[in-house]
Amino acid sequence: MTTPITFFNHLEDLDTESKYLVHKAKEATALAYAPYSKFCVGAALILEDGSVITGANQENASYPLCMCAERVALYAATATHPNQTILKIAVVAHKKNHKDLTPATCCGACRQVILEFEQRQKKPIEIIMFGTQNQWLKTTATALMPLGFGKESLE
User: Fold this and answer.
1) pTM for this one?
2) Core-most of 17, 50, 106, 119, by most CB within 10 Å?
């Protein structure tokens, strides 16, 4: 059974750890390299040992070579803390030169990558995002991709 998506009307309605990760994700948007889309995305995740890892989107003139903030943070976590379980990730975005957040949920590629991280660590990763109805939401990659592609698909 998958975890449902839980909606929150205000950032203040989230738990303290989630609000902190949202704050760290907002800070990470300052490190986005987004000269083409002007869409700055930040991600922050927390590991079981309490370490917080951030990432920001990195664009490239050859668009397929761009990297989303979520994957930057996930890969950095694996490279620097290989044996730590990822507990939670927050993702936020804003348009260049705008302070207010804009709704943005994980793209399909990031959902797939988070799903595989969940499968590898045999534990869900809570995802916090600002959804299209100007609501915060919490869920997992398994809930977002109930028919996701995994290792067992290749066996």
Assistant:
1) 0.93
2) 106
